[in-house]
Amino acid sequence: MKNALTDAQIAEYRENGFLVIEGFLDEDELATWSSVTDEAVAQRLNQEVTLDKGVWLTNQGDPDSFYAQVFTQCLKLLETHEGMRELMLDPRLGETAARLAGVSGIRIWHDQALYKPPFGNPTGWHLDNPYWSFSSRDALSLWVALDDATLGNGCLWYLPGTHRTARYENAGIGPNQADLFKVYPEWRAIEPVACPCSAGSAVFHNGLVAHGAGANMTNRPRRAMTCAYMPDGSVFNGARNVLPSAYFESLTVGQVLDDDDVNPLIWPPSQD
Ligand SMILES: O=C(O)CCC(=O)C(=O)O
Ligand SMILES: [Fe+2]
User: Which class would CATH give 7-267?
Assistant: First the structure.
């Protein structure tokens, strides 16, 4: 895993709000991530595994909806697949996220597989952190390409620097690519940057940077495995998002989200 970061990479991430690391996984690691993710997704979609905690786990309710054709989205796979748990709890991922964000501790918010289907819809411009149950300008995500991500199959696009001017207002991932610009008309002047990358590459992005992905014009899926990270010490903002119902109901706004079962601490590594 090519997770060591140079000062230049950290500076680039902080300036732009995203960083591409080509060849993040080596060939063997990519083969493992790919087969583990395929298996965990297949189990989830076939309902061979259940996670009955009142958590919303896939977007495949109506497979013909616009959103279901943006990507097959499977959340919290680490809770239902042991191999995925091992991959996601890797402290090297937490260390990399912590160094980029400039924070001392990192918890998992949620992992999610995002498979854009053949001929899939584009992913509308959006921000991530306003969806989540904590608000932190240091939140971030890891997006790992399991297939080559190209201009033709829906690689990621970013509006550089928008993490620094974003407010906690968002647009949904709906059919209109331009909805986010109704909220942030001043961002229309920013030149979007495409991030094509080869399978095994990683893209880290800040939870407040504007991003989206193009349509998949090819007859093959564009698969990605991702994980969203919460700086340790972040507090509950009142939003449910993917919190298990009993835990959600027990929380008060402002309470620290430090339940190790719900949000595992992956950096610093535990002493035992
Ligand atoms: O994979 C995609 O199309 C979108 C990814 C995304 O929005 C994210 O990882 O936050
Ligand atoms: Fe996103």
Answer: mainly beta
